[in-house]
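Work Package 4 report. The design task specified in the project plan requires that, given a folded chain encoded as structure tokens, an amino acid be chosen for each position. We show below one input record used in the internal validation round.
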């Protein structure tokens, strides 16, 4: 690493003899073997951003619960399944977020990740120990995975996954790689990852029901266009009555679902800034700023090339599309890092 580090040590423990000029990585490796790293009691927390994400998912969770209860009543009437079983199974299924075999399945088959090869592990392990030691976290709490991609990227997923792209691993200097890993560790320790995944999981039944309704509405509108004008008016009247009844019975809850994606995106942007702050507080502000500047320049170059190659010029994203962005723009992130520089 570019900056030596001496992690916090319990004052009552004696200091064993060591090489008078160890490298930061070797020093951390030695301290890890001798058990002299001080790990915090909680490697995973719940900051205000993660809590806000959970609160924003409540309308979707309640809607999903109503869908599950509706399905449960149908199973009870047709198959004699007790009414309480489907809701309880649905509620307990959230534990899969932290189930290691389930995470491994997601990493391999959904995220298309693979375990680090021996050469990858030799490069990643010392850097990861450096980052987790600065954070006071046991490096074995989380698992490192590789994505064969030419993009400069990394991400935190599920309950214990930290993924790094092949380009990031092969092309970034060690100090910048550590900054990227510190950013992803910030997502885990702040609770951003598990709260987001848990909220998305519990909102799935409601989303599936909404997609089914949209599909049926599309079919109904297509049918009405082929029929007479009176059939179309009748269909619109029925749909309007159903919509008003639903809003009245559910106290306007579906209206909240329309605004939820924009609010969740805003919380996601805040989570990225929090993760940047976490990396900067660990001493990686300058390295993270270099990575962000590289990504910013690459994005601008790719945008200019796309415009030059396209027959028709591409318009800038609209206001609503920018509100749905899950990451802040690079100038904003660099501006927030300035106090740490």
């Amino acid at each position: 690493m570019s900056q030596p580090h001496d992690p916090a040590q319990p004052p009552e423990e004696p200091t064993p003899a060591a090489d008078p000029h160890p490298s930061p990585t070797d020093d951390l490796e030695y301290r890890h073997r001798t058990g002299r790293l001080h790990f915090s009691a909680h490697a995973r927390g719940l900051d205000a951003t993660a809590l806000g994400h959970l609160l924003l998912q409540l309308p979707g969770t309640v809607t999903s619960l109503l869908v599950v209860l509706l399905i449960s009543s149908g199973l009870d009437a047709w198959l004699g399944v007790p009414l309480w079983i489907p809701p309880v199974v649905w509620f307990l299924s959230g534990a899969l977020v932290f189930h290691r075999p389930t995470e491994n399945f997601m990493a391999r088959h959904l995220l298309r990740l693979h375990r680090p090869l021996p050469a990858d592990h030799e490069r990643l392990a010392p850097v990861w120990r450096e980052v987790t030691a600065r954070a006071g976290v046991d490096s074995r709490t989380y698992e490192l995975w590789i994505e064969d991609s030419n993009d400069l990227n990394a991400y935190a997923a599920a309950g214990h996954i930290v993924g790094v792209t092949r380009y990031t691993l092969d092309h970034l200097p060690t100090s910048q790689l550590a900054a990227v890993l510190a950013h992803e560790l910030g997502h885990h320790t702040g609770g951003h990852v598990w709260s987001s995944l848990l909220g998305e999981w519990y909102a799935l039944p409601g989303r599936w029901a909404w997609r089914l309704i949209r599909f049926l509405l599309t079919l109904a509108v297509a049918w009405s266009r082929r029929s007479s004008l009176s059939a179309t008016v009748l269909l619109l009247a029925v749909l309007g009555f159903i919509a008003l009844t639903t809003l009245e019975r559910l106290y306007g809850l579906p209206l909240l679902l329309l605004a939820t994606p924009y609010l969740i995106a805003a919380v996601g942007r805040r989570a990225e800034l929090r993760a940047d702050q976490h990396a900067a507080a660990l001493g990686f502000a300058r390295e993270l700023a270099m990575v962000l500047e590289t990504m910013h320049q690459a994005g601008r170059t790719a945008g200019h090339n796309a415009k030059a190659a396209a027959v028709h010029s591409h318009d800038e994203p609209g206001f609503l599309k920018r509100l749905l962005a899950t990451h802040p723009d690079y100038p904003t992130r660099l501006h927030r890092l300035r106090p740490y520089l």
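The radius of gyration is 25 Å. Validation will be extended to a larger panel in the next phase.
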